[in-house]
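Supplementary notes (optional reading)

For those who missed the lab, this is the record we used. Protein: DSBA oxidoreductase. Length: 226 residues.
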Amino acid sequence: MIAAVVLALGIGTVIGSNTQNTTAANEDPATTASPSAESNALADLARRDDADPFAMGAVDAPVVIIEYADFTCKYCGAFAEETLPTLIEEYIDAGHVRMEWRDTPILSESSVSTAIAGRAAAQQDLFWQFYEVLYAHTYTGDGDFSRDRLLALAGEVDGLDLAAFETGLDDPELAAAVEQEGSQSRALGVTSTPTFVVGEQVIQGAQPIEVFRQIIDAQLEEETSQ
């Protein structure tokens, strides 16, 4: 289903309905073109910080995908398990796409604790490795996001210092950072997860790789024609 969503910084074309959210989803099919100024506003959301532990891919990649997600969201887990590996293989490793994460804890108290856990892993430059392990659990697991389970999952990440990770779980600065970024996501109008800003467009839900290919390829073609 094609649905329109409004971000505070602009209007994007949104594809899909496979999301988890805190508000009722818009059930009216619609397609809204993105005016140039609004498209630029979406593109400007990318940080492109070479030292960002929550990003992967070339800092100067032509297209940036920003993932607004919740670690307890099964649809986010579906994206991580089914779509992201192909994006990495076809676009990120090739230097065409950069991926950036934004904490969007909207579902439960576990949304916050898992986001803090992600930041504890990021302190060791192992965010994406923990992301992979945690989302595999979210996608196929029993819904247990207790402290003990998070520690067990962290123990599956090669090279992770478990004692330092556990200390991070209680770090008030990490909790504050999660709250700040979550507030920024909500201020942009993100009310369901996963939501993706793909260059100048918005994708909502755990869409198949074909949806991402179509949008990315069109933006890469536009980039090369300039």
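If you only remember one thing from this example: The domain at 2-225 is CATH 3.40.30.10 (Glutaredoxin).
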